[in-house]
Design brief:
Structural class: alpha+beta
Shape: globular
Strand content: 25-35%
Number of domains: 1
Largest sheet: 6 strands, mixed
Strand order of the largest sheet: 4-5-8-7-9-13
Order of helices and strands: EEHEEEEEEHHEEHEEHEHE
CATH superfamily: CNF1/YfiH-like putative cysteine hydrolases
CATH class: Alpha Beta
Distance between the termini: 30 Å
Helix content: 10-25%
Number of strands: 14
């Protein structure tokens, strides 16, 4: 089975892709394109999966990644960046061709950014903590240091857990209300002190509020589709133990 790459219309002309779990070499609960370095999968198989993923999106590029911490820090990848070091952060940006920025998810929202006029791209991991904490804002600010214009760039939010499967409690809801008084519309009451949260919708709202004019939501649900996506919450509900991670990638080829 070949590597499956989901592409966004908003990022047409930019080397990018939201990858599924298809087309790799891992087995068992990690079958097959598990790109999670921190998983309990065979490291050699993860390395091969990551190589295949990068080649499917930005052939010949150097894949770089992060030690993701559900925070709001973004890192610029410039000349001299060591690809063997994974900074503790949740977003990467670059204006250098030949670099593939990789973000891992398994229910959180991967967000890809591009300003083709400036030649700047970015990738962010937006879990709920990062989303409300401002990871997309930090990504935009870091891209601007390289010459990007947030009013000109386009973004795409990839596969993540959908509202229909993202049940949260009132304490969770109140965290958002305390940080963002426009957040309540992204919660649907589910009774008995619970609600269903629209993560992709909230991330899109934060991007629009920050001045991004074009935001696309890909719309695939990682929790519901176990044949195509890894899901941390699904694995937890099934008491399945460790979950794999899919990767989302964006890069510059010099032809944008």
């Amino acid at each position: 089975m070949s590597v499956e790459v989901i592409r966004a219309r908003a990022l047409e002309g930019v080397a990018h892709g939201f990858l599924t779990r298809s087309g790799g070499v891992s087995e068992g609960p990690y079958a097959s394109l598990n790109c999670g370095i921190g998983s309990h999968d065979d490291p050699a198989k993860v390395a091969e999966n990551r190589r295949r993923a990068a080649e499917a999106v930005v052939p010949g590029a150097q894949l770089v990644g992060l030690y993701q911490v559900h925070g709001a820090d973004a890192v610029a990848v410039l000349d001299g960046f060591d690809p063997t070091v994974r900074p503790h952060a949740d977003a990467l940006v670059t204006n250098r061709p030949g670099i593939a920025l990789g973000i891992l998810t398994a229910d959180c929202a991967p967000v890809l950014f591009a300003d083709t006029a400036a030649g700047v791209v970015g990738a962010a991991h937006a879990g709920w903590k990062g989303a409300v904490g401002g990871i997309t804002d930090s990504t935009l600010l870091t891209m601007e240091t390289l010459g990007a214009d947030r009013g000109r760039l386009v973004t795409a939010i990839g596969p993540c857990i959908a509202q229909a499967n993202y049940e949260v409690d009132d304490a969770f809801r109140q965290r958002f209300a305390a940080e963002d008084d426009g957040s309540d519309r992204f919660f649907r009451d589910a009774g008995a002190g619970h609600a269903m949260f629209d993560l992709a919708g909230y991330v899109a709202h934060r991007l629009a509020r920050a001045g991004v004019r074009r935001v696309e939501i890909v719309g695939a649900d990682t929790y519901a589709d176990d044949t195509r996506f890894f899901s941390y919450r699904r694995a937890t509900h099934r008491a399945a133990g460790d979950a794999g991670r899919q990767i989302s990638i964006i890069g510059l080829t010099g032809n944008e």
